[in-house]
Amino acid sequence: MVKFLFDLTFASLSHIFGILARYSFKERNHKEMSNKMLAAMKTKPSAGAELAVIDIPKPKPDEVLIKVKAASICGTDKHIYTWDKWSQGRIKPPMVFGHECCGEVVEIGSFVKGIKVGDYISAETHVPCGHCYQCRTGDMHVCRNVSILGVDRNGIFAEYAVVPEICCWKNDSSLSVEIASIQEPFGNATYTVMESNVSAKKIAIIGDGPIAAFACGVAHAVGAARIYNLGMIEFNLEICRKMGADISINVTQEKNYRERILEETDGGVDIVLDMAGNKAAVHDGFAILRRMGTFTAFGIAPAPFEFDMAESVVFKGAKIIGISGRKMFETWYQLRNLLDTGKVDPRPVITHRFPFKDFIKAMDLATSHKIPSSKIVLIME
Ligand SMILES: [Zn+2]
Ligand SMILES: [Zn+2]
């Protein structure tokens, strides 16, 4: 009995202490956090990143402040996280990285006219200058002075982020936050496909990452006759099949795939969409492209490489189209139409979701070569 009483008293005391401790922690947190936020930062010029508490940024007159609702991890973020050659030359720590996001506008700058507090937006990540030749002739996505969110300026892997008004894309309130956050890479795929005129054509999509998978979905929706998908990872090829690829080829397992495609298409595919960009992918792409065909280049090679221009392009009469970003904002209207009408369902590409506090776990998965993943989305609340 004595022991029971002792246990009871001890239990209630610790319970009360627990409540007191939690209460004071909450109070302190609220005071300290009112102008502070959690952000994923690149603090040093080396591999990795850390979650840090920093000041909530103030929007400039032509910017808005958003409370980030979801953010997705891009190939660019993996480069920055692993601190590869490209990042070493481009990224200047300390900075907040990340660029694919959606959020609610909580404050607007004094010049902002078209966006109001409460709007639910996604961000176009190419910030144009508005004054150069390209900006003034309808090509602001390739602005000469472009600055990219989370690359050249602070990004959105944070509880709050500033976005220039020109880069805000208003979403319908019914759009889920995870789909709203992947519209930017979905837009890369949409732009690549729509520039290539794939309707009723036999095409090849090279690559099996998220943007290649989105491209399979868009090409299927806009009427490509047959889609060959060349990739290296079975898990990803399966996602591309779900999205709309008709024939998937694992180039690490099948030997004579070039010959097979040339034979089946009677001389090559009409269009190649290269979402991989490396030397092998480019060589494959031109090898399976028919004469007078179109090669649309989106992927980026890690380093320059040798290429036979005469054989691949000149004698073939090939057309090459380069794709950077998304057309502002023609591509965004097109992608909205594809998503709104259900012509493309991007959900099979989203393979993992993490709460923002598990950012490092999410990045480790994204950069893991052992565990397969496609699009990874961070949910902020
Ligand atoms: Zn991206
Ligand atoms: Zn410009």
Blueprint (SSEs and pairs):
Layout: H1 2-33, E1 36-42, E2 50-55, E3 63-72, H2 75-82, H3 85-90, E4 95-96, E5 100-108, E6 120-123, E7 126-127, H4 133-136, E8 147-148, E9 160-164, E10 168-170, H5 177-181, H6 183-195, E11 202-206, H7 210-221, E12 226-231, H8 234-243, E13 247-250, H9 257-264, E14 269-274, H10 279-287, E15 289-297, H11 309-314, E16 319-322, H12 330-340, E17 350-355, H13 359-366, E18 375-379
Parallel strand pairs: 11-12, 11-14, 12-13, 14-15, 15-16, 17-18
Antiparallel strand pairs: 1-2, 1-4, 3-5, 3-9, 3-18, 5-6, 6-10, 7-8
Helix pairs in contact: 6-7, 6-12, 7-8
The site of one zinc ion has 6 residues, from helix 6.
How would you describe the overall organization of this protein?
This protein has helices at residues 2-33, 75-82, 85-90, 133-136, 177-181, 183-195, 210-221, 234-243, 257-264, 279-287, 309-314, 330-340, 359-366; strands at 36-42, 50-55, 63-72, 95-96, 100-108, 120-123, 126-127, 147-148, 160-164, 168-170, 202-206, 226-231, 247-250, 269-274, 289-297, 319-322, 350-355, 375-379. With 381 residues, it is of the alpha/beta class. The chain has two domains: 36-182 and 346-379, Quinone Oxidoreductase, Chain A, domain 1 (Alpha-Beta Complex); 188-322, Rossmann fold. The strands form four sheets. Strands 3, 5, 6, 9, 10, 17 and 18 form a seven-stranded mixed sheet that branches. Strands 13-12-11-14-15-16 form a six-stranded parallel sheet, sandwiched between helices. A three-stranded antiparallel sheet has the order 2-1-4, with no helix packed on it. It is globular. The model is unreliable at 1-31 (pLDDT under 50). It binds zinc ion (2 copies). One zinc ion binds next to helix 6.
